[in-house]
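Why does residue order matter? Because the sequence determines the fold. Keep that principle in mind as you read this record.
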Amino acid sequence: MAVEVKFEGMDELIKAVETLGQKGSRIENEALKEAGEYLAEEMKKEAPVRSGELRDSIKCSNVKTKQGQKYVEVGPDETTNWRAKFIEFGTVKMRANPFMSRAYEKNKEQVREIIAQKLREGLGL
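Structure:
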């Protein structure tokens, strides 16, 4: 005895799922970027200011993917990155001022909330 099952509308369903996948990826990118921009602004508030060069170099990268995981990098650009390491971790002659870690720790819950809210909005939840 054989049972024959016929699905109607599967082509439309598959197309809708594929569209949601593309839309979901775009929404995910927007959420990561917005959260990264927020963290960059908060990091600028924590950065020590002498000339302002370090503070002004803090940026959020575009969305990157590594081993299937999407992420953004937030921090000083290449021109001041070497100096930021000394400030963040200290040296033999200088006490550490972990402004990047401090900014992250103070704002990690808000960053998570920004990502969650953006995803909810984008997916209509």
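Residues 10-46 form the longest helix (37 residues).
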